[in-house]
Amino acid sequence: xxxxxxxxVAVMAFATCAMGATPTTLKLxxxxxxxxxxxxxxxxxxxxxxxxxxxxxxxxxNLGSGLDVGFKVRIxxxxxQGHAGINRMGHAWRAKSHPELLGGLDGLNFHDQRYANxxxxxxxxxxxxxxxxxxxxxxxxxxxxxxxxxxxxxERVGPVDLNTFYGYPPAIDRSxxxxxxxxxxxxxYYDASTQRWFQVALxxxxxxxxxxxxxxxHLDIAVSQTPDPTGAWNIYxxxxxxxGTQGTPDHGCxxxxxxxxxxxxxxxxxxxxxxxxxxxxxxxxxxxxxxxxISKRALVSGAASxxxxxxxxxxxxxxxxxxxxxxxxSSGGQYAGGHGGTExxxxxxxxxxxxxTSNTIWLWSVSNTRAIDSMPTxxxxxxxxxxxxxxxVPSSLAQQKPGNTPLLECFALTGCAxxxxxxxxxxxxxxRALAVNDSxxxxxxxxxxxxxxxLDTDVLLSDGSHGSGINYFVINPDSGLLFxxxxxxxxxxNLTYGAAAVTQSGRGVIAFTVVGPDDxxxxxxxxxxxxxxxxxxxxxAAGAGPWDGFTGLPYFGSAPRWGDxxxxxxxxxxxxxxxxxxxxxxxxxxxxxxxxxxxxGTRGALSNxxxxxxxxxx
Length: 618
Hints:
- The chain is mainly β.
- It has helices at residues 110-115, 162-165, 296-301, 406-412, 416-421, 588-591, and strands spanning 17-18, 24-27, 29-34, 68-71, 73-76, 100-109, 130-134, 137-142, 145-150, 155-161, 182-191, 196-206, 213-224, 233-239, 258-267, 271-280, 286-295, 307-312, 326-330, 342-348, 357-367, 380-392, 444-447, 450-460, 466-475, 482-488, 494-502, 507-516, 519-529, 533-534, 538-541, 567-571, 574-581, 610-617.
- The chain is globular and about 65 Å long.
């Protein structure tokens, strides 16, 4: 008999705390324009320079596992103090009904990413997921390519490497050896009220055309000129090194440069919100989340220098531990109009506790946002704690179902790795465990007058081991009342990198990856409702084989990677979702068949990640 665990959550006496932190006024500078144009796939199947030598793992974000990523000098972005051991069993069921799966398509994959722009790309893992939808289009962005589809799933443009999209030289020009800027952490938002598309990524500058990083880094913001994302876009640049140069404040990051890591986008009626996690780029230390507020009207009009204000989450007057403060996206042009316009944000704090657990999340708000065009320093930042069901940093990696892993098999086979990959032989247990998320907040939505969010949490699986589930929150942002708060989990598999999107009528979907001893990494989803909470687990697309990627191998200098974040987007009364999964499988023989390592164009030499885009209706 199916049962549902109902959790009654006590809400702390709700009173927002007004901070004395004064917003810093900045100016956003407009750059050029761009039109997304498909770049050709090609290039050698494997080169002697597969990874950016200024990096140590293929992507800039490794915080959740308490690991380091390097840019010549390794960055220490370890925040997680411990991992949880929560004895909460998974209680969801696997289902085959409601909400209705209306269709789906395989989105961008590692082959697209590595061989875009004629192969003038590095191998990158994980992909990260920036999905947005509206006006008959769906746009997907990952590290480091994008594609645009129509509402039937037909690819209109793509893959387009992000260096080309933002008007930069290639990530690596393999004919000259010249390096272009390093771009990472893309995200995307369609604003229904203005019918404009917003694309954001973090860009790290080089010293000339060498691989060495200059220290300066900025958020690149692309804004479509029309409701059609296949047309022209305006490009803006927002410096985020915050060391007193290029109009930035000086936050005192060690060794001179801050890093605007993990940027994400939200919006209210008057402003676009970008948030980052600020670390030292060349040294160590976390300096607090940053909240950037930009005039939406100015961006949409193509103004030369839109107003921007910055709230520094590291300011001593702020009582909350500001980490991954995720701004809410709007459902269909629905915004909070009180207090002169309000944007809500959510964050979690378990990573700061030695136990790896917490029963608190933080509700942030930026009010009087209508002042952004006339008196930007009159915006006000507030924050309040909410008591929620205890959640914790997941305590282990996710085991995978056995299957073909030709990359690992090549490493183990005498003569294969030295002859074909250029690395010494080494044997690994196959398949390797896959990384799950930490307990940072994930995508936040404002819909039906409520705030909706998710995060990964430790859960107890039926075999007695610990795994990952998804804790979800449905909040009245005015009172702090929780309409729903529970954990979505399976007893026999991990759910990770949840992202929720909700229609204006309050019907929502959580997208995630499902992975475990009996499940190849698969694209999953569950319904979400303010009264009933989360529904049962559905599989939108079952994984075809195990993840077989390079991160976590000793030669590549980092831990196993997966995700960083998923995405979901409302399109009228439907929801588009996107999750990382594995769309292919092939044998070692097929892997070594010409063209080498590509298994018929389904993967590359060093990885086989893919993404699944699905359309759901109610």
